[in-house]
């Protein structure tokens, strides 16, 4: 299976080229600054949509901590902008949020709960949408159950909820000290 | 100039370095990855299990996997497929991250062709050495590297020159009471798993502290018997070892037909190239990368790759056949033990079954089978939370998701089995160079053709049916198993077969190149067949054997 297929054929936005998703081994500092700024700009345009989808999947009235209480959107932003995160998937997450905004022809955040449910279930019917929702689900799970050093799992509430705790020793730095780029 | 330059610091590189340093030789140990020390390891699921931080980024370094699609071989680069053949590129290699459930190969594994004859479509040959020639090195590895366990006689267990393990088994979860009883009820003999994890303190290393997160993680007590802990650390203490981490070898340079002059290495931190000279050279880069390095070292003296006059370099790559399965032990209806005992964290399941290592009965026929390990599902929290969250083809979210995940964590625990059987060597499983793709150092990447022999699947499925019965007897629910021809990327061997005939093998019986006098290969590349157990104990043992041959070689020059 070629994982890039759904990225290339799934959307018309073409953000892959924008983010340098093609193999480019010689990255320079200057380019990294530009890409970082590009990321921040694009993420800002989809942040509220992603946050609302996370909140819909992990609401306050569940047996799991809510996405909002676990800082899941902040976690997601930090996680996908780190150099160790797959660059194709990073682009896909941003693209998929824009695609969702386009599909509903408006502001996802303004929808009622029922309308959101309907919109997300309809999105799930497409292979592209299903893949995107799975990515958001996984990243939100990571937010809730990673070590709190990454900014989620506030007060270890994720672990406490399941009575399952990360092992010792705990990390003292993110990503084994590999720098954020 | 070093006496010996070793490329790769995993199990085999460490064993050779240890032996040579103890014998007083000056050794350079080259490792492309960085050093992560015992004190730096943590149980960070995100970093170690969900991101490529101890393996290369697949956009920078990758392999292409060649698979048959509609009758045609199609090669897909790793950055597209997501398929990674990297297994822990730090000092100590993948031995840092192993689960450590190790067994010796059986004497008949060394003479599979003689014992079972030809298998159509498979390139099975006997080894040029016997179990008798390797046994003392298995014993050496057991003691020196540190393998804990308890020997129980079994018709399919290889003989031992020592009565029992010097380290008792690691502590066990109470589930073994249920597992043992269920096996015995079915006429199956459960055995205590021998494990490359110390149950007692040993030479600067602390006993296992039962962290609940062992496989896929580095060990913070030194109990796991990695090359770094067991071999590289004491080798460094001799003062004879120069450990060069962040040093990637691009090619091996020869200026004649029979001798290596130096390796061309890149400092991965600053990109600068350097030449490292030695009297002898040992390649221990893990099977598929060892073959690739030798192929990439072709020049006018070795136009088809270094040490490849036989044309066999890269051929007959093998993985481990088999598969896995699991079932859920639920709070409700749990037999034999209390649920609280089952949920106790950190303790091992520690059970293996060798009953089907050889099959010979009127109903099923006579064929080489495999081994089985039992364990709990990996306890990683994110991975367990983020699985099977679908119903009727739709994702669960909201309150339904919360109920599903909470129940999974609080009312059940999954027990798994893993089957190891021979991955038969064939003409359609090999590594070659992919000239259409280069890594970030400008070198052609390895193109790995993947094809399993039908017998591999047959054997795996045969064993899986018995394993499922064991889980049924235990009262497990939602039992399933999966046996396929998909390779276990962390269990790779072959590609530089050893043998007595230079026309049909790359290495001689001491794993020295038939063509190049000062070149050895110490990793699992030498294996013509793989046995039906994880390779690591055999890799350690054979590397100690090769190291003794190198010492004898050095004494003669």
Give the key terms.
heterodimer; A: about 180 residues; mainly alpha; 8 helices; about 0% strand; B: about 550 residues; alpha+beta; FAD/NAD(P)-binding domain; seven-stranded mixed sheet; six-stranded antiparallel sheet; 13 helices; 21 strands; about 20% strand; globular
What is the approximate shape of chain A?
Answer: globular
N-to-C series of helices and strands of chain A: HHHHHHHH
The gross shape of chain B turns out to be globular
**CATH homologous superfamily caption of the domain at 1-67 and 77-148 and 224-319 and 489-557 in chain B:** FAD/NAD(P)-binding domain
Indicate the percent of residues in helices of chain A. 55-70%
CATH topology heading of the domain at 1-67 and 77-148 and 224-319 and 489-557 in chain B:
FAD/NAD(P)-binding domain
Rg of chain A computed from alpha carbons, rounded to a whole number of angstroms: 17 Å
Number of strands of chain A: 0
- Counting H and I runs of at least 4 residues, what is the number of helices of chain B? 13
Our measurement of the CA-to-CA distance between the termini of chain A, rounded to an integer number of angstroms, reads 29 Å
| Arithmetic mean pLDDT of chain A | 86
User: What pair of chains forms the biggest interface?
Assistant: A-B, 53 and 49 residues
Strand content range of chain A? under 5%
Outline the low-pLDDT stretches of chain A: 8-28
Strand count, sense and closure of the main sheet of chain A? none
What structural class do the secondary elements of chain A suggest? mainly alpha
The domain tally of chain A reads: 1
**Average pLDDT level of chain B:** 97
DSSP helix fraction of chain B: 10-25%
